[in-house]
């Protein structure tokens, strides 16, 4: 499947769970034929139960539903939660189920995508999982995040991708090809937005998302704004940011100031001197944990998706982003960024960094070589063959209790 720009699309930015969840559940409620959903995390909390209810209602009226979850990210769904869905005809697929004993050492090469495709005509792409910590009423640990709702011809590409991902469950199996194909959406009247659906896998598309980022930064003429939760990219990526800033582009990074994991801020802070001295502006978002994976360049290009800019996302996990050429969407995202930077961020200055003069050159030397080599080193990490398994009603016993005990090999 080729990755190419497709015109005639419409985009709506969805910020946080308050905007994302109601819209997704509304679209699922209106589904007529099919729902394809992939997520890294699905928790059995108030958000997970609302999704469960929406899927159950749709399945009972005859909608064909496939849900793919990651076995590491969604390990604790109860047998009742699963069995009521499968009994209604929902097909649940688990990416690389992880035994509880080994869960702490099998983080690598996960299915990290967050996609929804309904009736082949409407898609959602972003970084928001199905968990209550994406809602503001969760408290100080509630996440700041983004997704995009898409209508138009590019949805057919996302639909094709989602079906192919399910077909990988059993090599050579092509049951999905016998489905009645939904009509390919025509270019929407008045919708001139172009989009490219881009994914990262461990086969032919190992660095496609990163390459699209670097190309956009290289072509930037006025501004680059990146909001990314886990920021520790390779040397080539950092060099593109530094070169853009030095040629007069206003380069701004919005990173975690109140991280969900302290090591995230520690790792990103190791890059601050390197970037600030080239003219890159760094803002730490301090209201709550930042979970977004979004960016814009100049007045037209933008991206929303699941890919962080760290070794896990850039070199190991399965990710999906949509790249967008659309001035209206770029403006929506720009306004959100401006709100964050003005009211919720602290700008980091070089004088704020407390490092001794003796330590800085040592740190810079080792950091340079780590960043220059880590994509290669990441490939040496355990490369188990991921498998996609289905949960069936017959595989759920009364005493199963947890998802990792109900999946079949």
Please describe what this structure looks like.
- It is a single chain.
- This protein has 409 residues and is an alpha+beta fold.
- It has two domains: 213 residues, Endonuclease, Chain A (2-Layer Sandwich); 171 residues, 2-Layer Sandwich (Endonuclease, Chain A).
- Helix content is 32%, strand content 23%.
- It has eleven helices and 16 strands.
- Strands 15-11-10-9-12-13-14-8-1-7-6-5-2-3-4-16 form a 16-stranded mixed sheet, with helices on both faces.
- β5 and β6 form a beta hairpin.
- α1 runs parallel beside α2 and α5 packs parallel to α6.
- The radius of gyration is 21 Å and the shape is globular.
- The relative contact order is 0.17.
- The C terminus is likely disordered.
Give a brief outline of the structure.
The protein is built from 11 helices and 16 strands. It is an alpha+beta fold and 409 residues long. It folds into 2 domains: 6-197 and 385-405, Endonuclease, Chain A (2-Layer Sandwich); 208-378, Endonuclease Chain A (Endonuclease, Chain A).
* Alpha plus pi helix count: 11
Unreliably modeled segments: 169-178, 396-409
Q: Largest sheet, order of strands side by side?
A: 15-11-10-9-12-13-14-8-1-7-6-5-2-3-4-16
Q: What is the oligomer described by this structure?
A: single chain
- CATH fold-level topology of the largest domain: Endonuclease, Chain A
Count of the separate structural domains: 2
Q: How are helices and strands ordered from N to C?
A: EHEHEHEEEEHEHEHEHHEEEHEHEHE
* Rounded mean pLDDT score: 86
Level-1 CATH class name of the largest domain: Alpha Beta
Kindly report the name of the CATH homologous superfamily of the largest domain.
Endonuclease Chain A
Based on CA atoms alone, the radius of gyration comes out at 21 Å
Biggest sheet overview = 16 strands, mixed
Distance between the termini: 28 Å
Count of DSSP strands = 16
Give the helix proportion (percent range).
25-40%
Overall SS class: alpha+beta
Approximate strand percentage: 15-25%
Mass-distribution shape: globular
